[in-house]
């Protein structure tokens, strides 16, 4: 007769499905300063967010945290529900998406990492953390470039001593060079402002100026060129819209140079200082993935995503008031029809 197995040992559960791994450089990254895991870590979250947060907290480093991978691993919720839950977890402070520049095998590329924290710090903490990551990434890039092997020494034909060390080559005698006469400085040519005034008579015969007139007006024309205009612009401003008769060309040009001088434009922004650390870490919007500075993404959301979340609640009272006005109008019309 068969004997029933009365052993109290539990049956070994089937092996769980392995976690999906993200591509190299992507995936989950644990933020520092987290407290140890506890049973009530996410007790204040709604049921859906609590369920997804518990799963994400158990993911290993580099685990896939995109919406498709999480929806595939969590059968209770689809992609839209997972995306909404991740947005809520970002607003609560548990995660931030960060775009990082990674240099691998001499090639640079941008990857998106999701930093996770079960302690839910505030936005100021995440901003400081992102700036720290950017500083560390810049230091790593500098150390990588500094660790490059130096070029091999050039081969020399210097004689080698018996000990193996190259003996210094004998110093060549200093050549006696006779002192040369310094050349005469070349005379300075006319300035662009002077040449522009001198060519006015060829462009417009009514504004033919003498050499003395050009010398008198040269300083006024140079002020135009100092404000960023070129000689063609200066010529066109002087010859356009002339009267039929010009009795004094030098007087008319002086007046136009004084009255029509263009405004001084602001200086161009200064170029980036060589050697300054480049921006290698940018925060991303949890909803749409738009990159930006940490202070421009409070709660991990860009301005457009925050505005779209506020539009439905703001438009509800307007729709109700419109519906009430229509009912009042119809009621008034019915009262008028009942009147004798």
Walk me through what this model shows:
The longest helix has 36 residues, at 303-338. The model is unreliable at 5-16, 154-166 and 313-323 (pLDDT under 50). The protein is of the alpha+beta class and 340 residues long. Helix 1 packs across helix 3, helix 5 (192-198) packs parallel to helix 8 (231-239) and helix 7 runs parallel beside helix 9 (249-259). The protein has a five-stranded mixed beta sheet with strand order 1-3-2-4-5. Among the domains are: 27-121, Arc Repressor Mutant, subunit A; 192-259, no CATH class. Helix content is 41%, strand content 9%. The protein has helices at 47-58, 67-73, 79-92, 123-146, 192-198, 200-203, 211-226, 231-239, 249-259, 303-338, and strands spanning 27-30, 95-104, 107-116, 281-284, 291-292.
Q: What is the secondary structure topology, with strand pairs?
A:
Layout: E1 27-30, H1 47-58, H2 67-73, H3 79-92, E2 95-104, E3 107-116, H4 123-146, H5 192-198, H6 200-203, H7 211-226, H8 231-239, H9 249-259, E4 281-284, E5 291-292, H10 303-338
Parallel strand pairs: 1-3
Antiparallel strand pairs: 2-3, 2-4, 4-5
Distance between the termini: 102 Å
Tell the overall outline: elongated
Which ranges are low-confidence, i.e. pLDDT below 50, for 5 or more consecutive residues? 5-16, 154-166, 313-323
CATH topology-level name of the domain at 27-121: Arc Repressor Mutant, subunit A
Q: Strand share of the residues?
A: 5-15%
User: Rg, please?
Assistant: 39 Å
CATH hierarchy, class of the domain at 27-121 = Mainly Alpha
**Number of extended strands:** 5
